[in-house]
Amino acid sequence: MKPKRELMSEKRLLVIDDEPEIGEFVRKVATGLGYEVQVTTDGRAFQAAYHEMRPTTIAMDMVMPEMDGNELVLWLMEQQYDANLIIMTGYNPDYAKDARLLAEFKGLRSVITLIKPIRLDKLREVLSA
Q1: Domains of the chain (ranges plus CATH)?
Q2: What region, left, alpha or beta, does residue 65 occupy, with left being phi > 0 and alpha being psi -120 to 50 degrees?
Q3: Peptide bond into 117 cis (omega under 30)
Q4: Whole-structure pTM value
């Protein structure tokens, strides 16, 4: 069991992507920008990490087995998540656009979509904003 953290970083990123190499790429970039980062590869691990970490930013893949991005957006709204959301997809950009519209409709103000392969400069720009 992990010890409870006394102080949490002001910049906490939770990543969910079923492709571990994408999660690792995002982790490396975000860590370099001062984020505390946790990477998950499935919905259940994401949900558990969410409650433990209380992220200030979430980066999520749209197309995953078991639980897709739209399901996670709805779950986040049930949790009253109101911080930054980065939606990533390597599929049709309209799929990410639909998730962004859903998140915005549900009340999230800061929703950004990134198309894979994600460019390093674009990821840095989004995480620095």
Answers
A1: 12-128 (3.40.50.2300)
A2: beta
A3: yes
A4: 0.89
